[in-house]
TrEMBL record:
Its cofactor is Mg(2+). This is Phosphatidylinositol phosphate synthase. Pfam families: CDP-OH_P_transf. GO terms for cellular component: plasma membrane.
Length: 218
């Protein structure tokens, strides 16, 4: 239960700290913008750091230090949007790159866990849970992208990427510190929330398409 409780605490804290974070991100983004760094560079460097931390530490069972490295680069990646707004370098390419790199980072995190639990970690249950969380996360993102591509809205879901990321990292970090069942709990919670989120998005899109079909039939 420790992993679940800590994940809930961190998620609640994130929601409350978002306004304060925005006040911090903007000045730092302004400083980064003055150095000439582009938002796309921040995106790529942040993703590369997450991938390095996940695949460099997690497969060796160093879950705590891997989580520290990943968290540092996830926080760094937050500045790309601020730099884009300040420099006026917003556009379709940057949005596409950012979303795609998020998928790469998420895949690296769960792949690192899967490699550990199918190797020296020797835990088939957690390996399967991590795989399920990886797949459900991809489906969640694809469902939204596909819906928007069809001109529909799909901004629903009990577990957005930020919440899923916090739960997985807190669970992995606590497990790396020796907290029993922290990662087990986190992955189970993620699997449940991911399934619910997929169902919510399917329902939302279905409702919109059905309403449109009924209007046409009148």
């Amino acid at each position: 239960m420790a992993g679940l409780l800590m994940s809930m605490v961190w998620t609640t804290m994130l929601n409350r700290l978002r306004p304060a974070l925005a006040k911090v991100v903007t000045p730092v983004g302004r400083t980064l913008a003055r150095t000439g760094v582009t938002p796309n560079v921040i995106t790529v460097v942040g993703t590369a750091g997450v991938v390095a931390g996940a695949l460099g530490f997690y497969p060796r069972g160093e879950l705590f230090w891997g989580t520290i490295v990943i968290t540092a680069f996830v926080l760094f990646d937050m500045f790309d949007g601020a730099v884009a707004r300040i420099t006026g370098k917003t556009g379709p390419w940057g949005a596409f790159l950012d979303s795609t790199m998020d998928r790469v980072a998420d895949a690296a995190i769960f792949s690192g866990l899967i490699l550990w639990f199918t190797g020296a970690g020797n835990n088939a249950l957690l390996a399967w849970l991590a795989l399920y969380c990886l797949v459900s996360g991809v489906v969640i993102s694809y469902a939204k992208a596909r819906a928007e591509g069809l001109g529909l809205t799909c901004d629903v879901g009990i577990a957005e990427r930020a919440e899923r990321l916090i739960i997985s990292l807190v669970g992995a970090g606590l497990y790396g510190l020796g907290v029993p069942y922290a990662l087990h709990t986190a992955l189970v919670v993620l699997a449940v929330l991911g399934t619910i989120t997929v169902a919510q998005r399917f329902h939302t899109v279905y409702a919109q398409t059905r309403a449109a079909a009924e209007r046409v039939g009148r």
